[in-house]
Design goal:
This protein has 5 helices and 6 strands, in the order αβββαααβαββ. By secondary structure, the chain is an alpha+beta fold. The protein has a single domain, classed as 3-Layer(aba) Sandwich (Chemotaxis protein chec). The longest helix is centred in the middle third of the chain and has 14 residues.
Length: 158
């Protein structure tokens, strides 16, 4: 599937996140992404509901991105990141961030995709999404600094 969608570029990710968090958001390439059990994964599906792309994030990114979207205090986000447990509001907000990030896979010449489901841990992933993650031909990783909150990692695969 990797040839069907646009490779998410650092500037495209930064621009999408800057619309949400301001121009001070920082996005840097990262050499790797450590998929721990608490990795949050958004599964993007084609029009026929088949998984075609994944965006994974670590708990710190999820906490900071989810909290900053609705201005939950940064101290609460830091606590969530350290404890590894996001509040329902943080998860709902992160779901919206993941929905917006779907655009980084699209161009005028790519097929449509949409956010299907977001999973709080790798253990929740259904078999077809897990298989996609194991067979993805293209992966890009980013370190993201959410202004006034903190830093976390994103990984995009398709």
């Amino acid at each position: 599937m990797s040839g069907s969608y646009a490779k998410p570029a650092k500037n495209a990710v930064k621009n999408m996140l800057a619309m949400l968090y301001g121009d001070e958001v920082e996005v840097a390439d990262s050499a790797d992404f450590d998929s721990g059990e608490n990795t949050i994964t958004a599964v993007y599906v084609s029009d026929d509901a088949k998984p075609v792309a994944l965006v994974k994030c670590d708990v710190p990114f999820g906490a900071y991105a989810g909290a900053a979207l609705s201005m939950i205090p940064a101290a609460g986000a830091k606590d969530a990141a350290e404890e590894g447990e996001l509040s329902k509001m943080m998860l709902d907000n992160l779901h919206e961030v993941m929905n917006i990030l779907s655009r980084v896979f699209l161009s005028d010449s790519t097929p449509h995709l949409r956010l299907g489901t977001m999973y709080k841990s790798l253990g929740e992933l259904p078999g077809d999404a897990r298989e996609l993650g194991e067979q993805c031909g293209t992966q890009v990783h980013f370190q993201v600094e959410i202004p006034q909150y903190g830093s976390g990692k994103l990984s995009m695969a398709f």
